[in-house]
Structures are given as C-alpha cells and as structure tokens.
Amino acid sequence: QVQLMESGGGSVEGGGSLRLSCEVSANYEWWNCMAWFRQAPGKEREGIASLYMSSGRTYYADSVKGRFTIFHDNAKNTLNLEMNMLESEDSAMYYCAVPWPGDSCGDRVPRKVDFGYWGQGTQVTVSA
User: Which of 31, 59, 70, 123 has its CA 20 to 30 A from that of 83?
Assistant: First the structure.
C-alpha cells in the first residue's frame, strides 16, 4: 500500500515563503496524478492544487493561484508545493494525496472524495 509523508511545514511571517515536500513510498506508482489539500481547525479539508505528472497539467484553487506552485521532482520522487506571499489565511495542516485505485484526480480543482491515500500532514502557520 502506498505511503505518503509530508514535510517542510513550520512558522513563517506573512509575505514569506515555504516549500512543502511529500515523500512517496510504493512498489509501483499506478497513479498519474497527485494533489495537495489543506485543512484549518474547524474547517473542511479542501483541495488547493493537483498535478498530472505525464502532461504537466495543473489545477489550482482560486485562493492560491498565482502564489503556489505544485511540481513533481522525478529524481527524488517527491511531490512539492512552493508557497509564496503567504497570508494568515494560509495557516492550516497541509496534506498530499493519491486518488482511489481506478479513480483519477479529476480535470478540476481536486476534491477530497476522489482521494483514498493521505499523508500525515505538515502544519503551516503564518503570522502577521
């Protein structure tokens, strides 16, 4: 079974930057896309970005478009999320995810119902 582990979170001042990484452990990567989600306390887990590795197609939530960049590092086999111009509203637990077997990430901003495998999450806290 696939295992995912996020890292790179921490505390940062508003306007700062962070780069998150998701390490993937699997014998065979059957999926062709991955995604990043975030969840603040008391809020629903929401998709913020997805990537189809073969085509490079990406989808971003309006709240992060232009500030965040999702990319895959083939050499390190990690999914990454570069976050710039961070705001207090970006504070949340960030998760990487892989879709259910036989499912896809969807040709849209990722929806949590399409994903069956999740990492433990990494906390991002943005202060003023």
Answer: 31
